[in-house]
Design a protein that fits this description.
mainly alpha, Arc Repressor Mutant, subunit A, 4 helices, globular
């Protein structure tokens, strides 16, 4: 059953693997994620933060990034890439790993880096 409770699973659409150079690099999302977290005081709900990130990156996203993932038809490719960027920032100590579900938070080190 899907999240909407309709009992139907979204059909997987195979857009194929992206050719080299078409995927927006994860690093494009680093600044907007950090800046977006610094603006509302260090933390934000994931949906709100990704909306902010989209506003800041929409000029550089190509049409491939705005398509759903073939493995997850309800998830746009750019949102998935931004989530992977978040994982990198957590590993680097720039975002917190222990924030509550659905909320991303910047670390003290991340705050210093954005301010610096």
């Amino acid at each position: 059953m899907d999240r909407r409770g309709t009992g139907k699973t979204p059909r997987r659409i195979d857009h194929g693997k992206l050719r080299r150079g078409l995927r927006t690099p994860k690093d494009v999302f680093r600044g907007p994620l950090s800046e977006g977290l610094a603006e509302p005081g260090g933390g934000a709900h994931v949906g709100r933060l990704l909306a902010l990130v989209h506003e800041k990156t929409c000029e550089v996203l190509n049409k491939c990034e705005c398509r759903p993932l073939s493995s997850a038809p309800n998830s746009l490719r750019w949102r998935n890439t931004a989530r992977w960027c978040r994982n990198t920032l957590v590993r680097e100590g720039l975002m917190k790993s222990d924030s509550s579900h659905g909320v991303w938070k910047i670390s003290e080190r991340g705050t210093r880096e954005v301010a610096g």
